[in-house]
Specification:
Elements lengths: L4 E4 L5 E5 L2 H7 L7 H21 L6 H9 L1
Antiparallel strand pairs: 1-2
């Protein structure tokens, strides 16, 4: 599990996210990045994590899947 931290302002509202530098370098090996590149890298990372978790998740029968979605 990653140690992701949140920064808050003086009112206690979340204002930023801090991720480990190792993950940052995995996502964006170049130092200069645009907002679009950052968004794309985070989206790709999250999609890959979800797909990896799905591989380890047992498949449901149709009726089980529908029941799960109704919850």
């Amino acid at each position: 599990m990653l140690n992701i931290e949140y920064l808050t302002n003086k009112d206690g509202d979340v204002s930023a996210v801090v991720i480990p530098i190792e993950l940052w370098r995995q996502l964006l090996p170049n130092e200069e990045v645009s907002v679009d590149q950052l968004a794309g890298a985070v989206e790709d990372y999250c999609m890959n994590k979800a797909m990896n978790e799905a591989v380890n998740t047992p498949l449901l029968e149709r009726s089980e899947a529908l029941a799960y979605l109704e919850e």
